[in-house]
Amino acid sequence: MRVLVLGGCGIQGKAAVVDLARTAAVERVICADVNLEGIKGISGFIDMSKVHTELLDATESDGLDRLFRQADVAIDLLPRQFVETVCQAAIRAGVSVVNTNYAYPIAHLNQKARAAGVAILPECGLDPGIDLVLYGEARRRFDALNVINSYCGGFPEPAACDNPLNYKVSWVFEGVLASTKRDSRVVREGAVIDIPGASQHDPAHIHTIEFPGLGSLEAIPNGDAVFFTNALGVTQSIRETGRYALRWPGWSAFWHPLKQLGFLSEAPLAGLPCPVSPYQIIDKLVGPQIQYQRHEKDLVAMLNLFEGKKGDRQVRLTSCLLIERDLETGLMAMAQGVGYPASIAAQMIARGEIIEKGVLSPMKHIPYPAFIDALRSRGISVEEEEVALP
User: What are the DSSP E strand ranges found in 107-263?
Assistant: First the structure.
């Protein structure tokens, strides 16, 4: 198979390129990006004879069309503002595409993609991604679901916690800042509760969980959990659900007062010689100071908790995984958690293991056993525990 990776020289894109180049069934990897320097960082670990690099201007439709015509399937790891542009190019070329962004901006392309015989599979990274595959499997295993709580986060190993945030950047700091302003929707005691981004770090909305091997982690509401229970068709039976970002304790105590003081405002400040916002200042000031050193590991922790009925029993199913940076290749844990699932899903489409067309969902269309086995073969093991409840 021939696989196009858009954004293949980025942090996450390199993980997808490495995985594809290591796969015997992949004949050619077309790595396209605006800057190709990043490919040098992985050239010593893969068969570069498989990898063909292409300069990319994502705003130029003819160039995108030309790239798609070279591939059997594509992976889109470009910034989220290009997601619809890329999906439209995929439809024009008749080539299926996997991306890791939320499905909201491209849901309207479903009929157009189906008519073109194209699969568009969004939300296929880490979170959203692996978690949604687990959601789908829980829906199949339980007769009724009452609780779905999803926790995921990336943060430094304890030895690398050397700044006041106990945090370092494993993707893009602007994206981290954006997530600190994300509105959330949860269900508690059967009632839907909207949590505006401005209140996300209020103490009333924060709780802690115990993660195996790591201890206490702080859980911050982060996203619309009801959107996914609606997609699963289980909202009517849900008494509790939420999607939460995980951090070392103290994260919310840092951001809560800064938010109250307007440090994440995107409105330009008055009295400065040029238009600049507090948000931009934080991005440019803090981001460069919290980068990983080559010898430091990032960690990705994910825990999904499901409760409900199986036959006449109340059951709790807990699924968790922990990913560490690969110091040999330098691939971040976050990059593996995003790039590997996207690569696995793209290969499933190319092999005909996913045959549906249109805008698809990992909850419904990714075959669970094959996906979990593929993750395990790449060193990502999902551990499960099921217990009966009183």
Answer: 119-121, 144-156, 184-188, 191-195, 207-211, 215-221, 240-247
Q: Are 84 and 62 in contact (CB under 8 A)?
A: no
Which residue bears the tokens 């959203």? 128
* Interatomic CA distance for residues 183 and 243, integer angstroms: 11
pLDDT per residue over 254-298, tens digit each? 999 999 999 999 999 999 999 999 999 999 999 999 999 999 999
Q: List the structure tokens of 334.
A: 């976050």
For 32, the enclosing helix (H) or strand (E) is strand 28-33
- From CA 176, how far away is CA 29, in angstroms rounded? 29
Q: Are strands 51-55 and 73-76 parallel, antiparallel or unpaired?
A: unpaired
- Using alpha carbons, list the distances in angstroms from residue 101 to 3, 97, 126, 347, 364: 19, 12, 10, 18, 17
Q: Mind listing the pLDDT tens digit for each residue in 161-180?
A: 999 999 999 988 998 999 99
* Burial class (CB within 10 angstroms; exposed 0-12, middle 13-18, buried 19+) of 92: middle
Per-residue confidence at 47, pLDDT binned at 50, 70, 90?
A: confident
